[in-house]
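From the shared-data thread, chain only:
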Amino acid sequence: MTAILTRFVHASSPAPARAPAGSASGGVRVVLRLEGAAAFAAAIALYGHDGFSWLAFVLLFLAPDLAMVAYLAGPRAGALAYNFVHTYALPLALAFAGFALGSTVASALALIWIAHIGFDRMLGYGLKYASGFGDTHLGRMGHE
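Structure, as C-alpha cells:
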C-alpha cells in the first residue's frame, strides 16, 4: 500500500524510456491498475456470493489468454484478437444478458471473464499495440 501511495505522490514522473506513445504513466497508470484490482475483487465477490463453481472459475480463468494464439498470424492480428477479448464491453454485455435472461451460466462466465481482465490490468497487462506484445496502454510490460 505504501508503494501505491508513493506512486500517487510522484504522479508526474516521466514515462519509461521504452513506453509506447500514448501509454499511461505515473499516477494515471496506478489508477488504471487499481481500477483493474477493483474489477477483479468485485467479480470474485459477486461470483462467490452467487455460489458459482470455484472449479469452473479455476478452469476458465485463463481462457481469454487463448487469444494470444492469434500472434502466430502476426502482431497486428494478435493485438486485435487479444484486445477483443480483453475489454470489459463483451463480458459486461454477457453479464447483462445473463441477468436479464436469468442465465446462471452466462452470469458465471461473465464474472470469470471480468475477473480475468481485472487481474491482468492489476498486474500491468494492458491492451496491446500492434508494435509488439509488450507494448500496452499501461506502458511497456516489465517496466515501471
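The helical segments are 2-9, 26-49, 54-60, 75-85, 89-101, 104-123.
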